[in-house]
Amino acid sequence: MNYKSTILASLFLVGVIASSNAQDIDQKNVPSVIKSAFNKAYPKATDVDWEKKGANYEVDFNLGKVDHKATYAASGKTVSFEKDIPNAQLPAVIAKNIKAKYPKGRIDDVDWINTAGKITYKIDIEGTPDVNVWYDASGKFIKEVAD
Length: 147
What we know:
This protein is 27% helix and 45% strand. The chain is of the alpha+beta class.
């Protein structure tokens, strides 16, 4: 196998692995119990896109001009919900911690996440290097992942 073939085979394999974890699906293939729960909770949702992730169904949508995401179990129960929030709505303790830990970084995006009543924040920071960080509602650092 030559160099180009090896590269192409590797890229194909990465694509197959990535697509096995999350798969875009047509709304008509979403179970009715899940669609019903979603439509009841978010009747004004627009730009609705569904994915199947493992046993769960994830839906990306907009309410007004704000990006949202909800994850549902096969039973129709909400597993988690998240939405973009303005940087100014990030709790001050978290903003202060980020400024101290990433002095050259710039907060690019903030997601407010509710998983079974537990609130966390995912913050995308542009800087050297770009990272995503998670904090709990009290301002405790959870983790950092390179972006």
